[in-house]
Inverse folding.
């Protein structure tokens, strides 16, 4: 009888420590997602802050390209009003597309392309786009790790108890953007 009681206690302790380990790993992954997204947002904010300067320079040389400038300004406004991560991702993608059109104006206007302010801002925006791509990759890797863990046994049990849901990847390919996304839950 004593041996059975000892076995039950040992089994209970193993289950308890396994549960604590799984809980801590899931919390750690969730916090990594939050940190990764915060890193993405820093670069998105920097890009957001560059828009007024770039628009001002372009307006001086290509004043009648109002449709392109309007798209950039609308994308910036949409991003500033975005509340959720999914809204911010969508607005960031719209901003990337608008930037491509704006930067392409440099090819159509040789005077603009020769302007040092435009060249500087064009270089800065390109650097920011590269940084966004790097941070997006890190974010997506963290999200993939989290999504994988919460689908595996026994982690799925704890994930459900904690209310953890799958997170969406930060997609930029228009074909990928058209696909239905997973429920985003960063809370």
């Amino acid at each position: 009888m004593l041996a059975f009681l000892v076995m039950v206690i040992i089994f209970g302790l193993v289950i308890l420590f396994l549960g604590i380990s799984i809980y801590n790993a899931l919390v750690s992954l969730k916090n990594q997602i939050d940190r990764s997204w915060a890193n993405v947002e820093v670069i998105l904010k920097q890009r957001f802050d560059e828009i007024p300067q770039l628009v001002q320079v372009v307006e001086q040389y290509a004043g009648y390209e109002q449709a392109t400038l309007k798209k950039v300004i609308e994308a910036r406004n949409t991003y500033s009003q975005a509340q959720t991560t999914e809204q911010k991702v969508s607005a960031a993608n719209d901003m990337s597309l608008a930037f491509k059109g704006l930067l392409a104006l440099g090819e159509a206007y040789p005077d603009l392309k020769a302007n040092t302010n435009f060249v500087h801002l064009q270089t800065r925006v390109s650097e920011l786009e590269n940084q966004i791509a790097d941070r997006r990759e890190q974010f997506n890797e963290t999200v993939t790790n989290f999504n994988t863990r919460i689908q595996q046994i026994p982690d799925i049990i704890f994930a459900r108890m904690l209310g953890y849901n799958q997170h969406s990847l930060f997609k930029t390919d228009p074909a990928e953007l058209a696909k239905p996304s997973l429920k985003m839950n960063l809370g």
